[in-house]
Design goal:
There is one protein chain. By secondary structure, this protein is an alpha+beta fold. Helices cover 23% and strands 35% of the residues. It has 2 helices and 12 strands. Strands 1, 3, 5, 6, 7, 10, 11 and 12 form an 8-stranded mixed β-sheet that branches. A 4-stranded antiparallel β-sheet has the order 2-4-9-8, with no helix packed on it. A hairpin with a 4-residue loop joins β5 and β6. Keywords: Adaptive immunity, Disulfide bond, Glycoprotein, Immunity, Immunoglobulin domain, Membrane, Signal, Transmembrane, Transmembrane helix.
Length: 192
């Protein structure tokens, strides 16, 4: 039987690769083991296929009709990390790949890595920018206004404008009174 286990983890979870390129799947083991099996689940063919077994000495055993040019396994010196290398990618390589170890008459499976092979990789989404305004802008943005102590903030210019207006209006009667006083003074001087 097969069962998933926390003893194994795979990186990455998903791979999207281009035809004729190569890719790599890493299997991390929580403890040293006698070797790692690699399997592929094909959704299209609905089968679980044995690919390759690799032991810590680097010896490999391949499944039926599995190309040694296509699949290879490289193990770390710690024997707790194995990576499956797949070259000459083709759409027939699509599937979910599992690393596996044998323990107590069971095959413990890794978390799985889904590989998708396409002829052309999709382009990343374009970032759109807002069109630049041709009108000159007098006000600065809020963050800049805060740095300039509210240069365009209505909280600043509305009270200032109101104060200036009140001062101007209060000058009108004062100016009128001064004008009348001056005229009276002028008339008195000329009468005498």
């Amino acid at each position: 039987g097969f069962c998933t286990n926390l003893l194994l983890s795979q990186i990455p979870e998903h791979i999207l690769a281009q035809t004729n390129n190569k890719t790599e799947i890493v299997c991390e083991l929580k403890k040293e083991h006698a070797g790692v099996y690699w399997y592929r689940w094909s959704q299209e063919r609905q089968n679980f296929e044995f690919l390759i077994f690799s032991n810590p000495l680097g010896k490999a055993m391949y499944g039926a009709n599995i190309s040694q040019d296509k699949f290879s396994v490289h193990g770390a010196s710690s024997h707790t990390s194995y990576s499956l290398h797949i070259s000459h990618l083709h759409t027939s390589d699509n599937g979910t790949y599992y690393c596996s170890i044998s323990q107590s008459s069971q095959l413990l499976l890794g978390s799985g890595t889904r590989l998708g092979v396409v002829d052309v990789l999709p382009l990343p989404p374009k970032t759109t920018q807002a069109p630049l305004s041709k009108k000159p802008v007098r006000c600065v943005t809020k963050s800049k206004a805060a740095g300039k102590k509210g240069a365009c903030s209505p909280l600043v210019w509305v009270p200032l404008a109101a104060t200036v207006l009140v001062l101007l209006l209060s000058l009108v009667p004062t100016t009128y009174r001064l004008h009348r006083l001056r005229r009276r003074l002028w008339l008195r001087v000329h009468r005498q």
